[in-house]
Amino acid sequence: MEFDVVIVGAGPAGLSTACRLMQLAKEKKQELMVCVVEKGSEVGAHILSGAVFEPRALQELFPDWKEKGAPLNTPVTKDEIYLLSNDQDAKKLPNAMTPKTMHNEGNYIVSMGNVCRWLAEQAEALGIEVFPGFPAAQIIYNDDGSVGGVITGDMGIGANGEHKDSYMPGMELRAKYTVFAEGSRGHLGKELIEKFALDKDATAQHYAIGFKEIWDIDPALHQPGLVVHTAGWPLDEASGGSYLYHAEDNQVLVGLIVDLDYKNPYLSPFHEFQRLKHHPLFSQYLKGGKRISYGARAITKGGLNSLPKMTFPGGFLVGCNAGTLNFAKIKGNHTAMKSGMLTAEAIFEALAKADEAPQEVTAYTDKFKQSWVHEELYKSRNFGPAIHKFGNFWGGAFNTIEQNLFGGNLFVTLKDDTKDYAKMETVDSHQKIDYPKPDGELSFDKLSSVFLSNTNHEEDQPCHLQLKDKSIPIEVNLPKFDEPAQRYCPAGVYEVVEEAGQPKFQINAQNCIHCKTCDIKDPSQNIRWVTPEGTGGPNYPNM
Length: 543
What we know:
The protein is of the alpha+beta class. It is built from 14 helices and 24 strands. It has helices at 12-27, 56-61, 112-125, 187-195, 269-276, 280-286, 333-351, 363-369, 372-379, 383-406, 446-452, 472-481, 485-488, 517-521, and strands at residues 2-8, 34-38, 52-53, 74-75, 78-84, 91-92, 108-109, 129-132, 136-141, 147-152, 155-157, 163-168, 172-180, 207-216, 226-232, 240-246, 251-259, 290-300, 311-312, 315-317, 465-467, 494-499, 502-507, 527-529. It is globular. It starts with a strand and ends in a 14-residue tail after the last strand. The model has no long low-confidence stretch (mean pLDDT 95).
């Protein structure tokens, strides 16, 4: 199938690219063939975000979003930021002691899954073809090395590689331009960055893992629009922070963000999150409530210093696939949307040149540098490196001074050029962490949590978690790091079991919630995440 533009990923970046493209085509009365492929079973099934949403890009894309019924129903009414010194104490910080980027007046508490479902409706109304359940598995390269589209994944291949009765080959989707909007650590984006050396002028990219649960709570405790952020405990051996947002319908959204540059191989981000909920600041709302959803996702947080070149012959990287998140705000949805809109404008101008359309649309780079996204990312360029270099407390103090007194324009630029996986130290440098057992009321185990993510994969299919060397987990990672995949994975995918008296590395791929943490944090860089069969993975209802 041939299109003018193929977009990989129906998240905020991909759908905004598609909508803006078709808006321009209709304004100029031009015919455009645009399609969006999405690996989730439906649009929104794989979307997970906090999320306090800044509507700036949405306002530009659809100025009448309120009339069109966009699901922005809970405006932020109050911001509270706490420093947690231990498992009982919480010190509320005055506004003057917190970066002004953390203030959320004019923003909304939303389900980004539902926002993306709404964006998909707008896209289809504009004439865009949206194909959920079709993962882009391979990149099509033209004879000259440029990108010519993607091939969707085959269906009906057994774990042994043989074709089952249900076999259906993938489709070639060819395009003049292909936009990769896969989200954080997209496996095709990773390939493109390497092939075209897009990151040769950037510092190392950095990531965090973000957890989220949705709880129904006592209506008497519910405060719609209240936004709570914390720093400090339980992250004694990692940087990051937590959140609790009071959404609509007597629900709260609770989560923890753990930077993936932590050193201790015994640290388990999942269990740190479970500990968090026992703190009185959180338990006062959650006790007696009901946990109804769980998920986790990698967050690309390197910012401007780590941003790769976003154009290459035949295509673009947009949104979190490139790393446009503004970590000073802990927000990336509005910047992802705007990066997609700028991409659409650059593509439309290029296509208007017909036979003279450039193979690589370098004009995008100028558009990006002149946009408010670039201005935002420049002002927050030091936020992550300051935390990495100075820790939560002193890094937070630096960021408060830079943001509040200098408006993000301090003369110095901090950088962290060590990749996250390389920060992990060996077991002889650390003590095991004794995490408390879950109580089934506030804290839970991994398997019952994965159950709430509605994760499902066809069992008889090739494993989508590929080991470059099958001997490394037991022969290298186990003695040096006590095989940390057992702990950094938030879904119980990786286990070390005993077989015939010997340790064996077991991969429970059916549990995978597509967070990509293994692809990022494995200290041997031995795990490669690729797309499983279409519709596989979590099915988040309203994350």
